[in-house]
Amino acid sequence: MIQVSQISLTIAGAVLALLLTGAGVALFVGLRARAAAARATASHARLEALTEQSPAAAMVVRADGRVELPRRLADLLGFDAVPGQLDEIVGNEAVFEASEGKVLEREIAAAQKAARPFRVIVRAKGSARTLLAIGQRAPDSVRAPGGVVIWFFDATESQQEVTRLSQEAARYRDAFEALTGLIQSAPMPMWYRDATLKLAMVNNAYVAAVDGRDAETVVAAGLELVDASAPGGPLASASAAREAGRPRMVKLPATISGSRRMLHIHDVPLPTGGVAGFAVDVEELEQARAGLKRAGEAQRAMLDRLSAGVVQFGAERTLTFCNQPFRRMFEMRNEWLADRPEFDRVLERMREANRLPVVRDFPGWKADRREWFRAAEGATEESWTLPGGTHLRVVAQPLPEGGLLVIFEDLTEQVQLASARDTLLRVRTATFDNLFEALGVFAADGRLQLWNNRFRQTWGFEESFVTSHPRIDALARAAAPRLANPGRAGLFAELIRAATVERQQRGATIELADGRHFEVAAVPLPDGNALFTMLDISDRRRSEAALREKNEALETADRVKTAFVANMSYELRTPLTSIQGFAEMLHGGYAGPLPDSAVEYAEAILTSVARLSDLVDDVLDLTRDDTMEKTGVDLELAAQAAAESVMPQAKAKRIDLAVEIDGTAGTVRGDRRRIRQAIEHLLRNAVAALPERGRVLLHVDGTERGARIVVSDDGPGMARELAAKAFDRFVQPGISRGGDRALGLGLPLAKQFVEAHGGTIQLVSEPGQGTMVVVELPRG
Which stretches make up the Histidine kinase domain (predicted)? Predict the structure, then answer.
């Protein structure tokens, strides 16, 4: 019994050991499975979390049409409850459009049968969202045999972006096509170079410029518009533009259509590494610029020759040009002007040179001048009176490009001449009113323009009548009752018509009803008017009548001489006496103190009157045949007296008057006054013909038979044909020495006096060699 019990115990112990070992193994396996389950649970939770956060939601479609999908996808498709069958999704028109549902159903069927993946865009009905469905056969791990897994992605934003990009691409494509068309139709050559700087595209203008057949041929041949081997050529310019990373322009010549043209080559680097380019033909622009430059230079050269000062300022108000008269007028230095001073600084420099009008507010005055640049009315004109009496006419013209052109014209001389003219007019009026003769000036239309008081008083006209400037016909009718023969009133119109229309001087004698006689004449004036003069010859007529009664025979024999002397005495001496008298009164201050210029005018009148008196004496000497009182005449004394008389005239012209009296001169028998006058006339003639600082030599010598007087000068001389007529009294007005002074009556008078003494006179002259007159007088 005990032995059985031990065996039983041993077996029970073994069984218990096996049980314990099995329990341990089971515990180990359970713990291991539990750890695996925990890991699987964690992985499932992680995958579920990733699935929930995934942008895509999966749907499994089984072979029998059942579907498995998460709640998130059902919400995305717009289902209130999660559907269980595919028909509830693709056949539900409330979810998809019928066409889109059929497309999705067809693609799922194809995937189930042929394992063909698909991509379909679907849009949930009533939703603005777009879904991208990507399907493929379900893998074995899904445990859906014959099923399909479909991933739905929310492609709303990406689809919108795709749509936007598509529209933008279409717009860019249209713009590219338009730009391509524009480039092809552009009138200027245009091209594109690739990264290797080879021609990749050219337009039609480029093809025409290089005489190519078409763009492909030109690109294939690499025809360059400009010689590529020339320094700074197109390749070098394109390379430089690409390296600099900015557009570049060079000016290069090219031959287009057989003519040489100047081009502006523009190279523009592109982000692709290529370079775009275009060429602008500037040949006409260059020619225009050259023409403008030449025109500007010619204009400036012309402005430098003007007497007016011209200055030009640019749009920035700096000096761009001024001519030489401007620099002299305002004492501007060239080195100062080279700095292109501003307008205000130029005005300040003028003020420093005392060449601006004196103004109290110079800044304000200067600000007003600045407005010249913006003058809307065009040119502005002003008159400036500068210190020292200079008068300027200033014209400021704003320029279209914004600059200013200012012209300064010196009117000082014109103002002085106008003042002198006014003075002369007053002198003329005063002279007219105080002349002995009655004077009237008639215009070309016969109207009375000027008259003196004696003219009005002679005819007894009212002041209002003459101030109405009547025509000669009306004046003749008014004067007819005062004539002894009223029918002769038409003579006045005939005289005025002859002087104004026929330009002929005519005269006549009239008698007034009161017995007075007048010599009337109409003289044509240079301005087309006529001067009508009336000289009262009543006394002369009475004297003539008395002489005619007492010495009829003498008057008949010497009628020409008497008429000439009478005309000279009354027509020349009487007005000269009046002029001299009034001039002496003016010069003496009887009419009040005179300004210095008026004193000079009076002295000039007196000098001219004295000279004219001498000329009258010379004329009278020519007409007289007086009996000479012949006595012994000492030639040395006569020559010295003549030289002293001429000396003032010589000194006034700074002429060296030398006198040489040889001891052989001696005496001759003759009239002392006439011989002295002959020598004086020769000396005066020589002095008058000489320019300043000339030389006159008076030489006297003699022989036993006669004496010789030589007067020589170093003046301009005379031509031979004029020298032959020097002593002819009737051609004096046409003969001149040196071309600037008439000979006068000196030489004819000298010849007359010498020949009256039985002597001879000879003139020798050559142009540029001076003149010599030789007089030989007999002793007896």
Answer: 567-780
- Among candidate residues 410, 435, 451, the one where a domain is terminated: 410
Q: Which structure tokens are listed for 280? A: 């602008």
Average pLDDT, the chain: 80
Check: CB of residue 225 under 8 Å from CB of residue 279.
Answer: yes
From the CB of residue 31, how many other CB atoms can be counted at a distance below 10 Å? 10
For every residue of 707-768, DSSP letters joined together read EEEEEEE-S----HHHHTTTT-GGGGGG-BSTTS-B-TTHHHHHHHHHHHTT-EEEEEEETT
Residue at token pair 């500037």: 282
Which of 229-233, 297-301, 512-516 has the lowest average pLDDT?
229-233
Residue entry with tokens 């002085």? 416
Q: Note the pLDDT of residue 734.
A: 41
Checking if the pLDDT of 712 tops 90, the result is: yes
Query: Residue 509 is which amino acid?
Result: T
Residues 6+ away with beta carbon under 8 Å from 239? 197
Q: In this structure, what CATH number is given to the domain that contains residue 634? A: 3.30.565.10
150-to-69, 111, 370, 758 alpha-carbon distances in Å:
10, 10, 86, 161
User: Residue 667 and residue 280: Cα distance in Å, rounded?
Assistant: 103
* Claim to verify: residue 617 and residue 749 sit in the same structural domain: no
Query: DSSP letters of 658-677?
Result: EEEE-TT--EEEE-HHHHHH
Q: How far is Cα 519 from Cα 436, in angstroms, rounded to an integer?
A: 13
Residue owning tokens 């003749």: 476
Residue 661 near residue 636, CB atoms below 8 Å? yes
State the residue range of the domain holding 649.
628-778
Look at residues 736, 620, 754 and name the one whose alpha carbon lies nearest to residue 675.
754
Decide which of 281, 315, 344 is a domain's last residue: 281
How many angstroms separate the Cα of 333 from the Cα of each of 123, 301, 324, 604? 90, 19, 11, 43
Identify residue 268 by its one-letter amino acid code: V
Predicted TM-score of the model (pTM):
0.35
Same domain, 642 and 770: yes
> Which residue has 């006209």 as its token pair?
461
Same domain, 304 and 373: yes
Smallest CA-to-CA distance from 152 within 91, 201, 108, 197 is with: 108
How distant is the alpha carbon of residue 355 from its chain centre? 24
Q: Is residue 506 part of a domain?
A: no
DSSP E strands, 257-331: 259-269, 275-281, 309-313, 319-322
CB-based contacts of 469: which residues, under 8 Å, 6+ apart? 447, 448, 449
Do 208 and 143 sit in the same domain of this protein? Answer: no
342: nearest Cα among 307, 314, 379? 314
